[in-house]
Design goal:
heterodimer, A: 172 residues, alpha+beta, Alpha-Beta Plaits, 2 domains, five-stranded antiparallel sheet, four-stranded antiparallel sheet, B: Rossmann fold, Rossmann fold, six-stranded parallel sheet, 21 helices
């Protein structure tokens, strides 16, 4: 099963390696990983998407919690969070196909991020893997020069108390 | 007051109550060694960094204090690795300090450089690289706190040589502030109540006690819970000593080389009360068939140990001692009369036995050590047959009297651990029960033991082979003894002992065993006893790998 795990960590060097090590030591391939500072510059948030059996993931979550630099671990379940991923796609364009490409982009409500002399770059934020794959499939006939994805970020949609330092109280 | 990093390290160690450091010098720790030169801290110079790490570990296990070891960068640091991993697997509080090349050279493949924080990441509870001397005092404070609290473990501090020479104001912090680290000590009262109810209703309860009970100093509570409620006690290798082996309720060790009665008792039980143990594969055997009728109460300070291997009915996360105190108060005595009769039957039926003839049987040697010491000794072991015979035949009476590499199974652990133990407990009789294979893995530490006048008794159960591996080859690999026999290539251990200034005794006859042990106990020096035991003696009972633990080879009396 696919899990989206959100981890609040101390913003220190070596933390990423510790966390990645817990997955790699158990032979788990991380599907995506996104890291960034939070509202508190001393704290970073990592969003990790990983596939694996529930029992092993349960163990990994416990191990993640055990790390000294881990402040909080949340495994998002369906419906309790919003998530997004940004994808950039570079497609070759010529006079003949320009209109068709732009039409395709429009269908997906994607944006043109850059127009070059021989290519255009498209950006799209999506909450589903399927959307991104569909965009890629639609653009593939024109030739995909390059695809770059940020990996998924996720946030709980539950209300929270600002006074608690903005840290969400999500059921683990 | 302004101090250099090296000075701050020494002052901070003093603040932490460190009396002894085990280690080895080198280029990247010269500023620290210069400060050690006139420091009150005792420094034990081992002959190999691995010896220093195991000695710090043995010191920690024997005393309950944090063991400290120190080595230089690169090879010094990597030589500590086995010792750190050993301590990590057995939850031993340790702080390992390594020198590192100058900060600006890190990552440059500098002379004697190794990324030791990277290398030790999965085998330490936490580790640090000191980038700024201003962080040093806080890091040391945190390191000791992390090492000794919660589920203890080793913490490594990597300390670049230029930072050792930088100066800053020294102020040792009063408190640590780690928002991501808050071990749970108090068990959940509701869970304790549920556990008490389960015990009350149990017909065949059994206490399964591991190293966690020793670490949390819970042996009195284990005794109270067991004796007060008529519950038999089995122990893991590291749990031995938590409950006296001479007690009628004691079943000894369980698992692959556990006693037949312990294994059958746990398989027949209807309630397992696990205290600081982790249902390791050597304990459970085939998981699907383990204790099929038992409910499980699991008391452990580490939430990641709970429900890792077996499904737990009543988990209680907390300190073993505190949880047991609560449990003792809450529990009403179950009726275990019939169960205890069954236990007595099992104990008779599956009594440990060995061939009693005129040859030196290793089990006999261990029994004679018991007869000479009656549990009043620290027994270190190496790994393999020697370790299992010691666990089976020495009747451990007190916690912190068996020092053995249980999790990692490190050959070469016992002797340096004995050095640490003898320094931590100068009045105790300290033994290392070894094989002729294991002892050669850290034999160089004879020099350390002799120069420091540590009267350690080394028992070599010499069968001229790597006995445990040979046993597996005999039983499961058609007696194809591939590279396990030392015949003709074993050193003369008596001469070797003498070369180091220790006393060597060779024992080739059964009737010399007792007098040799007595002589060793009355010798104020390191004594190496070379017992020529029966080569083909095996450790029984034995559960073949992957079998249920009640299907043993050689279990019946």
């Amino acid at each position: 099963m696919k899990h989206t795990i959100s981890i609040l960590v101390e913003n220190k060097f070596g933390v990423l390696a510790r966390i990645a090590g817990l997955f790699s030591a158990r032979g788990f391939n991380i599907t995506s990983l996104a890291v960034g500072e939070t509202e508190d510059p001393a704290v970073s948030r990592m969003t990790i998407v990983v596939k694996g059996d529930d029992k092993t993931l349960e163990q990994i979550k416990k191990q993640l919690n055990k790390l000294i630099d881990t402040i909080k671990v949340v495994d998002f379940k369906e419906g309790k969070f919003i998530d997004r991923e940004l994808v950039l796609v570079k497609v070759p364009v010529f006079a003949e196909n320009r209109k068709e490409v732009l039409e395709a982009i429009k269908t997906f409500e994607a944006k043109v991020a850059n127009v070059g002399s021989k290519s255009i770059s498209v950006e799209m934020a999506a909450n589903q893997d399927g959307m991104i794959k569909a965009l890629m499939e639609l653009l593939r006939p024109f030739g995909l020069l390059e695809v770059v994805r940020t990996g998924r970020i996720a946030m709980s949609v539950e209300d929270m108390d600002l006074k608690s330092g903005g840290k969400p109280e999500v059921n683990e | 007051m302004k101090m250099t990093g090296a000075q701050i390290l020494i002052e901070s160690l003093k603040k932490e109550g460190v009396e002894t450091i085990f280690g080895y010098p080198g280029g990247s720790v010269l500023p620290i060694f210069d400060k050690l030169y006139d420091s009150p801290i005792k420094f034990i110079l081992t002959r190999h960094e691995q010896g220093a790490a195991h000695a710090a570990d043995g010191y920690a296990r024997a005393t309950g204090k944090v063991g400290v070891c120190l080595a230089t960068s690169g090879p010094g640091a990597t030589n500590l690795v086995t010792g750190i991993a050993t301590a990590y697997m057995d939850s031993v509080p340790m702080v390992a300090i390594t020198g590192q090349v100058k900060s600006f050279l890190i990552g440059n493949d500098a002379f004697q450089e190794a990324d030791i924080t990277g290398i030790t990441r999965p085998i330490t509870k936490h580790n640090y690289l000191v980038e700024d001397v201003k962080d040093l005092a806080r890091i040391i404070k945190e390191a000791f706190h992390i090492a000794r609290t919660g589920r203890p473990g080793p913490v490594l501090i990597d300390f670049p040589v230029d930072v050792q020479m930088q100066e800053t104001e020294f102020a040792y912090p009063e408190k640590v502030d780690l928002r991501g680290y808050n071990p749970t000590y108090e068990g959940h009262p509701g869970q304790i109540k549920r556990a008490a109810k389960a015990i009350e209703g149990a017909k065949r309860p059994i206490l399964y006690v591991g190293g966690g009970a020793v670490i949390s100093e819970a042996s009195n509570e284990v005794r109270e819970l067991a004796s007060g409620n008529g519950i038999p006690v089995t122990m893991t290798l590291l749990g031995l000593g938590a409950f006296p082996m001479t007690d009628d309720l004691a079943l000894g060790m369980l698992g692959m080389h556990g006693t037949g009665y312990a294994n059958h008792a746990i398989m027949e039980s209807d309630l397992i009360i696990s205290v600081g143990a982790r249902f390791d594969d050597r304990v459970t055997g085939k998981l699907d068939e383990f204790a099929p009728n038992a409910k499980i109460i699991h008391i452990d300070i580490d939430p990641s140990s709970v429900s890792k291997n077996v499904k737990v009915d009543i988990p209680i996360v907390g300190d073993a001692r505190r949880v047991l105190k609560g449990l003792i108060k809450a529990v009403k005595k179950p009726d275990t009369g019939t169960w205890l009769k069954r236990i007595a039957e099992l104990k008779e039926k599956f009594r440990l036995k060995y061939k009693d003839d005129d040859k030196i049987r290793p089990q006999y040697v261990i029994e004679e050590i018991w007869n000479a010491t009656k549990g009043d000794a620290v027994i270190c072991t190496e790994v393999g047959q020697n370790q299992m015979w010691a666990a089976q035949y020495y009747k451990f009476m007190k916690p912190r009297t068996i020092l053995s590499s249980g999790g990692l199974g490190t050959m070469g652990y016992g002797f340096p651990a004995a050095i640490g133990a003898q320094i931590g407990c100068p009045k105790s009789a300290v033994f290392d029960i070894a094989g002729d294979g294991s002892i050669q893995m850290n034999i160089q530490e004879l020099a350390t033991a002799v120069i420091n006048k540590l009267p350690i008794k080394i028992i070599i159960l010499n069968n001229s082979c790597l006995g445990m591996v040979r046993q597996w080859q005999e039983l499961f690999y058609k007696k194809r003894y591939s590279h396990t026999c030392f015949t003709g290539a074993c050193p003369d251990f008596v001469k070797l002992a003498q070369a180091y200034g220790a006393v060597g005794i060779r024992v080739t006859k059964k009737d010399e065993v007792k007098s040799a042990i007595d002589k060793a106990l009355n010798t104020d020096n390191v004594v190496v006893m070379d017992f020529h035991i029966e080569k083909e003696e095996n450790v029984f009972p034995m559960v073949p790998a992957g079998e249920a633990i009640n299907r043993m080879i050689g279990g019946m009396a």
